[in-house]
Amino acid sequence: MANLTDIITPTNLVTKTGTDTLTNKTLTSPILTTPALGTPASGVATNLTGTAASLTAGTVTTNANLTGHITSTGNATVLGSFTSAQLATALTNETGSGSAVFATSPTLVTPALGTPASGVLTNATGLPAAGVTGTAAILGANTFTGLQIEAAGADIASATATDLTAATGNVVVITGTTTATSLTMTKGQQMVLIAAAAWPLTYHATTMNIVGGVDYTCAAGDRLYVVKDDDDVIRVSVLKQDGTAVVAAGGGLTIGTPVALPSATSVEITGIPSGTKRITLALLSEMKMTGASGADELWLRIGDSGGLETSGYEASVFSDSENNPQANAFPMDTPYNATQNFYYAFCVILSLVDSSSNIWSVVGNSYSLGNSKKAYSMTGYKALSAELDRIGLTTYQGNKSFTKGDINITYE
């Protein structure tokens, strides 16, 4: 029997603190504390826990059950191939079906977009005929192949300035009988107005440009087509319920209401409608001297919304023996200082020469019974600062006054 010392030698012992090599030894359930395993030839890591900070990339060739979040500090070079269907199966809160979608240029098939916060429909096609609501800022040129229906809006009450900008439809009924001197519209706005009652309209070159250039009182049922053009002119076309024309063919002459002459030294006729091109003034009156003795004469003046103009006339009146040029009015006779009453009868025609500069040409004839029964002829012209809307008669010195008689105009 060998000696124990021959069997137990330093090279045959595994020491607690030393570094030893085990060859062909089997250890059953050993507990190793922070061992340096080197590079094991094999091993089963099923029950390993903790974090392996220095694992290098490799290939998992069998199924692995990974729990929790998987993170990577580098790029995953190979994850394998997944179809959109396989990815959808792995997800639990997806919506919709089909292919996975990425941010740039995706192709969506019949998506329900909800209410997008923004979007550009420049290249959109197939918009439904009845499914587009709201205001399209610019539609561009379009060809409508089906029936187009314009909304019938709520009634609008007539007013001096009838506002159509807040209309709720393109076809509205105008109620009431207030005289309208203007319409308020937006450029490009087109509407059909239907009068519910007698609705007076006053012609105006820009805010109520009635075809025919006349004032017109609508009857119940009359239809008006109104549009505001790019020059800010509101064009008004009238289709009368009774089928007649607004302005009679070959006529268009409007006869005013005779005005009884007051006991005053002047009289003024206003409200001559915009667009008037010709006026005939007729007068038959008695006048008498009322002030201090002295020569006086009868003057005709014209004016616009600013009043009768008192300068800029080029005119003269003459008889067989007298001539009376004037720059402040159209003179109807020559100075006369008799004290008795006398009668005037005269007719004056005023014709628009140039509408852009409001130049009027005037010719007339008068007859005075009290001034040696003389006949007078007058002619002249005058440029107004705006469109003519009034004429007036006055006396130069205020020594004559109208005592009776009438004055009237016709215009077209």
Task: Describe the overall structure.
The chain is built from two helices and 24 strands. It has helices at 4-7, 84-90; strands at 156-157, 161-163, 171-175, 182-184, 190-195, 199-201, 209-210, 216-218, 223-228, 234-239, 254-255, 259-260, 266-270, 278-289, 298-304, 307-308, 313-318, 323-326, 330-331, 342-354, 359-368, 374-383, 390-395, 400-411. The termini are far apart.
Q: Would you kindly provide a brief summary of this structure?
A:
This protein has 412 residues and is mainly beta. The protein contains 2 helices and 24 strands. Strands 11, 12, 14, 17, 18, 20, 21, 22 and 24 form a 9-stranded antiparallel β-sheet that branches.
SSE order and pairing:
Layout lengths: L3 H4 L76 H7 L65 E2 L3 E3 L7 E5 L6 E3 L5 E6 L3 E3 L7 E2 L5 E3 L4 E6 L5 E6 L14 E2 L3 E2 L5 E5 L7 E12 L8 E7 L2 E2 L4 E6 L4 E4 L3 E2 L10 E13 L4 E10 L5 E10 L6 E6 L4 E12 L1
Parallel strand pairs: 1-3, 2-4, 3-5, 7-10
Antiparallel strand pairs: 5-9, 6-8, 9-10, 11-24, 12-24, 13-23, 14-20, 14-24, 15-16, 15-19, 15-23, 17-18, 17-22, 20-21, 21-22
Number of helical segments with 4 or more residues: 2
General shape: rod-shaped
Share of helix, binned: under 10%
Radius of gyration: 52 Å
State the secondary-structure class: mainly beta
The largest sheet, given as strand count, sense and whether it forms a barrel, is: 9 strands, antiparallel
Please trace the helix and strand order, writing H or E for each element.
Answer: HHEEEEEEEEEEEEEEEEEEEEEEEE
Separation of the first and last Cα atoms? 157 Å
- Low-pLDDT stretches are none
Mean pLDDT: 79
Beta-strand percentage range: 25-35%
Write down how many β-strands occur, each being a DSSP E stretch of 2 or more residues: 24
